[in-house]
Design goal:
The N and C termini lie far apart (56 Å). Helix content is 48%, strand content 8%. It is built from three helices and two strands, in the order H-E-E-H-H.
Length: 105
Amino acid sequence: MEISKATGIPVIRDEMAINGNLESVFYTDEENILFLVTLLSHKDWLVTKSVTKSTEKVTKSAKKVTKSLTKLIELVDFLKDEKFRHEILSFLGLDNQTKNFSPPY
């Protein structure tokens, strides 16, 4: 079989369909930062109920990761310029108190 460049996903989908696997689950966040694919096993190997639960868990996890990545990207953008301690703590949602500091290493 000859495969062209940039055809990976269609080839995977086609081969899995030929094998009788369940439809794969594709997820991406609104910012297109995260791309998650769940490749499901052959339908005779799984109980539909467990597949549904697994898919729901994966989707919830993906959303949590997306939220964390989005916040991290916002933090990196925020820190491009020099900031005062109180500005950084405020951005992070922390109070400007003596307990909130990084020890010198």
